[in-house]
Write a structure and sequence with these properties.
The chain is an alpha+beta fold and 252 residues long. 27% of the residues lie in helices and 25% in strands. The strands form three sheets. The protein has a five-stranded mixed beta sheet with strand order 1-2-6-3-7, with helices on both faces.
């Protein structure tokens, strides 16, 4: 086992009793700043179980990384106890700094993973499916959010602009645990899931400055430019006015 790989990364190797391929399992293990990554907005209340909060104040595992790491350790321990049944080499990669998009590059820059040369890499992400269920989705899944901050001249109404930007969305962020679970279970219906193949989730909130904070995810990604254009049009309208009410439709 090697620690300190690319900062706080850990790489463990388990050699089996017979020749075979090198297979890797990767788990992200960083927590996040719970004071800046908690819905609903404005940042008050909680939509996660406080039992997941870290012993470090203001930090929580809000993206399942604690479970990803626990699963990796559990698999490694179980296979190590019966290594005579393992063919080839197993590599367990525990990656820090996944949220800021820095940890993977830092670990690769050490060259250790490349020298081990896994033939295949496996990873998973927790999701509120029934216990014992494994789901596979083609293409990209569970992508991050684009985050931006709009700075306004003094005297501008940040709340009005935030409302206008958020109205660009076709799928609303859940405001509480009940809404989150309802939205998730609705997606288990194939027809409902297909209807959201083209969608935009936008959360916007006023901040001191004045400013507006925005979280954005447009699906598919190529429609992001369309929504950027609509957002610019929203910014050009006089503050306090709104566009005519029209039915929302997926981006085109």
């Amino acid at each position: 086992m090697t620690t300190g790989v690319g900062g706080h990364g850990v790489v463990a190797v388990l050699d089996g009793s017979a020749e075979g391929p090198t297979i890797a399992y990767r788990a992200d293990m960083d927590a996040v700043d719970a004071t800046r990554n908690v819905l609903p907005f404005p940042r008050t209340g909680r939509v996660y179980d406080e039992g997941f909060a870290s012993t470090v104040p203001g930090v929580a595992h809000l993206c399942g990384h604690d479970l990803h790491t626990a699963i990796g350790i559990g698999v490694a321990r179980t296979l190590a106890e019966s290594s005579e049944r393992v063919r080839g080499r197993l590599v367990f990669v525990f990656q820090p700094a996944e949220e800021p998009l820095q940890g993977a590059r830092a670990m690769l820059d050490t060259g250790l993973v490349q020298r081990l040369a896994p033939r295949e890499f496996y990873a998973l992400h927790t999701s509120p499916f029934p216990t014992g269920t494994i789901a596979v989705s083609p293409g990209h899944g569970l992508p991050g959010l684009d985050q931006l901050r709009i700075l306004l001249p003094d005297g501008q109404d940040a709340a009005a602009l935030a409302a206008g930007v958020e109205a660009l969305g076709t799928v609303h962020f859940p405001q509480n645990v009940t809404e989150y679970h309802a939205g998730f279970h609705a997606l288990l219906d194939p027809a409902a899931a297909a209807a959201r193949q083209e969608s935009a989730s936008v959360a916007a909130w006023p901040e001191p400055g004045p400013a507006v904070g925005v979280l954005l995810r447009v699906w598919p990604q190529e429609h992001c430019r369309t929504y950027a254009h609509r957002s610019n049009a929203s910014r050009r309208r006089p503050v306090g006015t709104s566009s005519p009410s029209t039915p929302r439709s997926p981006p085109s």
